[in-house]
Amino acid sequence: MTAMEGLPVDLRAFHNEVEGHLLAAAAHEEARRAAARVARGFDWLPAEQRAEVERRFAAEHLALARASWQRTVRRGEELRDEYEALYRRLRARMLAALLLGVVLLVAVDLMVLVSV
């Protein structure tokens, strides 16, 4: 059981939105820290140019993270579609098997009643 299962839909949406903002803030902080680490290696550059390197690196880091998240979302949607299709086929097969079983049971009952 997850913490989200008992929440109303609007509260669940709010929770998801807050979580998204927290993830985005963490990604920005991670990009900023990585950029600062890289820029420290360019101590021979003037401060203004080093700041520009840091800004560009952070922007590229965020773009890569965003692209990775988008690929993950697309793959998740693909998997959900695949599993939903499999579930629908399985449900149809189970219904067909159940109906066949009922038909066979009724046929056997009729055969027994007719033979008695």
Any chance you could write out the topology, listing elements then pairs?
Layout: H1 9-40, H2 47-115
Helix pairs in contact: 1-2
Give the amount of beta strand, in percent. Answer: under 5%
- Characterize the quaternary organization of these chains: single chain
**Cα-based radius of gyration, to the nearest Å:** 29 Å
Q: What structural class should be given to the helix and strand makeup?
A: mainly alpha
Summed up, what is this model?
This protein has 116 residues and is mostly helical. The protein contains 2 helices and no strands.
Task: Write up this protein.
By secondary structure, the chain is an all-alpha fold. It has helices at 9-40, 47-115. Helix 1 packs antiparallel against helix 2. It starts with 8 loop residues before the first helix and ends with a helix. The model has no long low-confidence stretch (mean pLDDT 91).
